[in-house]
Structures are given as structure tokens and as C-alpha cells.
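Design job #97: recover the sequence.
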């Protein structure tokens, strides 16, 4: 009897999206805030370098600008990966606007924060964006948490 190789290759598991409770988002905020501030500074620096590449100053060296720009982009990408690993979504590089995905009353919502705010004090519907921000106390009495399927695992 000939034995056939029936070995299968497992497909990589799709990384599950993280949903935060208000408490989890607030605990993550000090770390997220530091990374977002680093992203904002790096983004500003990369934009300045790009402008100088387009319109160089008399003392600029194109090769140095290109090297610095590439290094800045690598650093920016590393910082973005870092923030994505936490599970938050950076929505605005200049304002430092961040959404923490959450689950409330059977639907996905976003807990919203931006640089300059002391804590996470607002939320919005997924399709409403920043303009649809509402006070987080509207969610707190009922609670924000994980999807029902997540909490049963």
C-alpha cells in the first residue's frame, strides 16, 4: 500500500480585532498618548523633509535629505505598527486623533481621544467620525465591553 502525503498547511489565523472596554482604553491611554505624540513629531519632521526635497534650501544636500527622509519614514512606519498592535486606530496624524474600537448595545462604536485631552471622554458611532462625538457618560451607565461572542470564550 502506498502512503500518500496528506499533510496540510494551516492558513495563518486572521488576527482578531481588539475591542476595548472604557476601563481598558483608559488604562492603555498613557502608552497610546506617548506613541501618538512620537508619531506626530515624526510625521511633522517627515513632512518638513519632503518639502525641503521639493524646494531645497541653499545649504541642503539632496542625498542627505533623501537619507533622512527614508529614515524618518521607516521610524514613522515602526511607530504606526506599534500603535496598531495595541489595537487602536490613528485617525489624524496632525491632531493626534485616536479611536479605540468598542462594543456597545450590540453594535460597534469608537471611544475617541485626541492629544490635549486628559482622558477618554467621548465616543461616536463608527460612521459618524469626530463630528459625531458624544459624551462618554451616555455609555457608562449601560457599559461598553466586548462582543457577546468574545466574553463567552
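Job complete. Output follows.
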Amino acid at each position: 500500500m502506498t502512503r500518500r502525503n496528506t499533510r496540510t498547511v494551516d492558513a495563518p489565523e486572521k488576527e482578531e480585532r481588539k475591542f476595548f472596554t472604557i476601563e481598558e482604553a483608559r488604562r492603555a491611554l498613557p502608552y497610546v498618548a506617548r506613541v501618538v505624540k512620537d508619531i506626530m513629531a515624526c510625521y511633522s519632521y517627515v513632512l518638513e523633509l519632503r518639502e525641503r526635497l521639493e524646494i531645497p534650501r541653499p545649504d541642503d544636500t539632496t542625498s542627505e535629505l533623501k537619507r533622512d527622509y527614508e529614515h524618518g519614514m521607516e521610524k514613522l512606519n515602526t511607530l504606526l505598527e506599534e500603535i496598531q498592535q495595541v489595537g487602536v486606530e490613528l485617525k489624524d496624524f496632525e491632531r493626534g486623533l485616536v479611536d479605540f474600537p468598542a462594543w456597545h448595545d450590540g453594535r460597534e462604536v469608537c471611544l475617541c481621544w485626541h492629544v490635549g485631552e486628559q482622558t477618554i471622554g467621548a465616543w461616536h458611532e463608527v460612521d459618524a467620525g469626530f463630528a459625531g462625538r458624544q459624551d462618554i457618560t451616555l455609555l457608562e451607565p449601560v457599559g461598553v465591553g466586548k462582543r457577546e461572542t468574545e466574553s463567552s470564550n
